[in-house]
């Protein structure tokens, strides 16, 4: 019996050591993410910094990897701080071609640089470039999938940029023979069912729910101001119950 007990103890010890190693790795990863997140949020005058970086990028004669790093940083600054840097979008559109090196990363930069305060017509130009260059039947299913997914990510951040015509054309790919294209089109439809079902054709709206009936994309610059504090009604109910309890006593 002593042998059996020691065997169980050693197994538990090994399991504990293994779990501790996993925990340490997880902590290291978490710390790195928090550090990166904090640094970019604490930049002084991000608008001026981003403008200077864009000028540097436009005149950059360095290798492509350096340009990629600059585009990455500028796009993150724009998205996190909701900056106005309108010249960045035409610059990045030049690289939005299926054959372009590292094009998936560049599409991600376009998504990072999209936010609700950018005038919709500026982002619409980016969407149309992606749709015309990627989402056409002459391209492979993989290229089309990348294009639709990029459009979805951008419109999730800036819904007003999507037009009814473009959404209708993309929704038709729901029945495409390529499974990946079909699934990408369906995720885009699901996104607009939650954002603004009215933009979809009736056959794509699905069954109306309480959330979908109330769903509406705010106009450019419109704030969702409330004349009440969400959740305050719970306090009123609790006060009424307390008062009722005191009266019974």
Automatic annotation (TrEMBL):
Question: What's a Pfam family in this record?
Answer: SDA1_HEAT
Q: What is this protein called?
A: Protein SDA1
**Protein role:** Required for 60S pre-ribosomal subunits export to the cytoplasm.
Q: Does the keyword Transmembrane helix apply?
A: yes
Q: What is the lineage of its organism?
A: Eukaryota, Metazoa, Chordata, Craniata, Vertebrata
Spell out where the chain crosses the membrane: 73-92
Arranged from A to Z, the UniProt key words for this protein are: Membrane, Nucleus, Protein transport, Ribosome biogenesis, Transmembrane, Transmembrane helix, Transport
Residue span, SDA1 N-terminal domain = 3-177
Is Protein transport one of the keywords UniProt gives this record?
Answer: yes
Any idea where this protein resides? Nucleus, Nucleolus
